[in-house]
Task: structure prediction
Amino acid sequence: MSSVSNMSVKSFSFGGGVQSMAALVLAARGELDFHTFLMANVGDDSEHPGTLAYLRQFAIPYAEAHGLELVVLDRVMKRSGEVRTLYQDLTREGSRSLKIPVRMSNGAPGTRSCTAPVQNQGRRRRTQTPWGDEGRARHGRDRHQPG
Result:
């Protein structure tokens, strides 16, 4: 007979951005009562490279130096034990998944599929920012098109 533990972990959802890093610094200073920070890693081929570089070069060493736990969680498939990234999941042969949640231009929730084939054909000009594409996923329309 197995027993179920009632143990709970108080954790902070760490996204790798400015606000998450600020929370990590506040926790290190004792101003925020969190010691465990969890980051859901969507994958090296799916996350912005700058976010991953910052995480490895600054955030993880900072957390370790201040006695905090910053855990990067990968998606591991139960049956095979394979680590699967978001990009791999969305571009999987035969996949019909629409797993990217977005807000439509009217504010309603919606979903969309990966647009890599469309982008690679050059059918739509995209505006680049230091953070990546600005377009339908973030704003419901392309920034360079009048709304």
